[in-house]
Please model this.
Amino acid sequence: MALDLIDVHKSYPMNHGRKHVLRGVNASFGRGERVGILGRNGSGKSTLVRVLSGVEVPTRGRIRRSMSISWPIGMAAGFLTSLSGADNCRFIARIYGKPSQAVVDYVESFAELGEYLRMPVGTYSSGMRSRLGLAISLAIEFDCFLVDEALSVGDTKFGRAFAARLANAGLIIVTHSPSQVRQLCTRAAVMDQGTLTFYEDIDEALATYNSL
Model:
């Protein structure tokens, strides 16, 4: 089971020509792998996240998916903000064919939202939305979790529970933070000017990233 990107390009139309963001990305993520992707602003990370998650399709190239991958956790997007957190849980559970109440119960136990779980998501802080999205994704049990750099759980009870829950799960984390890569990953890559380079040695990846 894997997620494979084969010569993936992504560009967007502009007034004069096209803006090329991803330039021939090749990558393979196996089930259970824990990969950190580092990159500066403007390197193509956000576009890569959207392509990995299926939110956008490549302009050219192919993506082969033989395992399930989560939405980008940390972006805190896609919720129906007029509905409560619990109602969003039920809605997402129906989409993925999971028992609604089991998902609500898991999120209630894990996300530590208290009475806010029954309040509209529009009243949540960004951190609360991140916890809600992360807890729902864990309840769905994807083969691989896609974590965006916007996620910041820190050394909190929730953060430690998150790290423990993902200890044996597949993970792709796209981040600015070398410390997150050291803590959570066994392999790393650097995104630079639309290209992705993998390093088996995390220290080498971090040194390359720091030199950019």
About this structure: The chain has a mean pLDDT of 88. Residues 79-141 form one domain.
